[in-house]
Amino acid sequence: MRHRMYVAAFIALFAFIIRAGTALGQDVPPGPQVVYRTAMEVSNPPAVFDTINLVLDFAPGASTPLHSHGGQGIVTVLEGELVHRPEGGEERRLRPGESFLETPGHAHIAANESGANARVLFTALLPKGAQLTTVQSAPQSPAPPAALPKTGEHPAASEHLWVVVLAGAGLLAAGWLLRRKRRSA
Length: 185
Fold this sequence. Notes:
Elements: H1 2-25, E1 49-58, E2 67-69, E3 72-79, E4 82-86, E5 92-94, E6 99-102, E7 108-111, E8 118-127, E9 133-135, H2 161-184
């Protein structure tokens, strides 16, 4: 009888492993494809910092005021076209996949002068306690925080219901065999 209990537990465990292995080996969607890649050297990185990612949408004609950032930043144009005007520097017109580096404390303007929407990804390495954005026309006031959309949803629990059912069936079978063994003894 003890042998039957072990066999039932083994069968349940084996079925669980086979099913999990099959799920992992089934049609796996293709991995991501790199569309844009930017690598820039970070000069004097702070010892402790926050990494901040913002996706910014510029409607046609939208522009930032003259501003600077408290940490080093990388801006990558994802869609549309963006004009970058650093104070005392040369204006650049950027298209999707192109990037520019923002140095802490250097004022600049970013604008969408086209007739279509523009979307950019802004990543900043912000030292602890530093302000993300300081508008030059206002005395050291940070830009209002952006409201970020809720991203990602957890998969429904019912997607993996088969695991619970299979484990429950194995436990029931083991319990049934154990009870049967006790009655016969």
